[in-house]
Amino acid sequence: MRAPDCPSADECTLVNIRREVFADRPALNDAIYEQMLQQLQGNGEAATESEGSLEKVAQKFIQEAASVSDISAAQWRLDGDAKKLARYGDLLTITVNTYLYTGGAHGMPVAHWLNWDLTQEKQLSLADVIEPGQEEAFWKLADESHQQWLDTQNTDKDFRQNWPFAHSDDFKLDHDGLVLLYGVYTLGPYSMGEVKLSVPKEKLKGVIRDKYLSQTGNHRD
């Protein structure tokens, strides 16, 4: 989508929104829509007020860009994309990616992973897959993976102090274990991009609920 008076895509504010729609899974489609809506309105985070639809979000963005066109030559851009990332047993992971540019050196990319239990037809949080009482043990394992990642990046003492370990709500399960996703500016500067920390499957026994950990992955829908 672009402004009605836009002569070409190279000169105007652009809004591109795409999302995969899953047949016979209305609750999943609604969850994806809501996640996309929140990210596009809140610069990747939950918005305080909702525009109600992706179309209204796009229209508002174009209007806001037009309101500052006299003082800014930047070509504003808003992108959204939601699609299947992986499936591990009955756990389907959707990646919801957004990108906002309103001027400056670079835009702001944001990615969140939405996990959906295909049997129960509901969204799962990380807390749902961790065994009760094993939260501390899980984050200790994740911290160990972070330390290993820091070693591979040859980071110095200052870097480690400035970019400490943090928790993440974004995860996916696969044959090798569990992967945590961290957005830009979370565990490192923008130039490092997103960071993924992997916790090996053998270390997760007794920490992640067995019904999720022991599933077989890479099913085809």
Tell me what the structure shows:
This protein is of the alpha+beta class and 221 residues long. It is built from six helices and eight strands. The protein has two domains: 111 residues, 2-Layer Sandwich (Heat Shock Protein 90), CATH 3.30.565.40; 87 residues, Actin, Chain A, domain 4 (Alpha-Beta Complex), CATH 3.90.640. The strands form two sheets. The protein has a five-stranded mixed beta sheet. The chain has a three-stranded antiparallel beta sheet with strand order 6-7-8. A hairpin with a 2-residue loop joins β2 and β3. The two termini are 31 Å apart. The model has no long low-confidence stretch (mean pLDDT 91).
In short:
The protein is α+β, with helices and mostly antiparallel strands and 221 residues long.
Secondary-structure blueprint:
Blueprint: E1 14-19, H1 26-41, H2 54-67, E2 77-88, E3 91-101, E4 108-117, E5 122-124, H3 126-129, H4 135-152, H5 157-162, E6 171-174, E7 177-182, E8 195-200, H6 210-213
Parallel strand pairs: 1-2
Antiparallel strand pairs: 2-3, 3-4, 4-5, 6-7, 7-8
